[in-house]
Amino acid sequence: MAHRKLSQPDPASPLADLMEPTHYVDARSWVFRGVESWKWFVRRHRLELGARGAVLELGGRLLVHAAKFDAAVLELAQPARRYPREAAADARQVEG
What we know:
By secondary structure, the protein is mainly alpha-helical.
């Protein structure tokens, strides 16, 4: 079976932000230390990421919409969302 060479997307295309997970992780190595770290985040938040259009499955491949994934990381990684009791306790300490 012959493999097609993948072309670069037209920058004006709405698909231009789609990329392979490894490319996304490489471009954000200060956030995700490797693909396994990224995979853990996706497993933990898959439904939310899918609902936001941050990850798409096309032809059996998972693709990342970079801008939407970035926005999702900023919101989903917030301590108040992940650990509500601890965040509430921290807020009470700051207030009191």
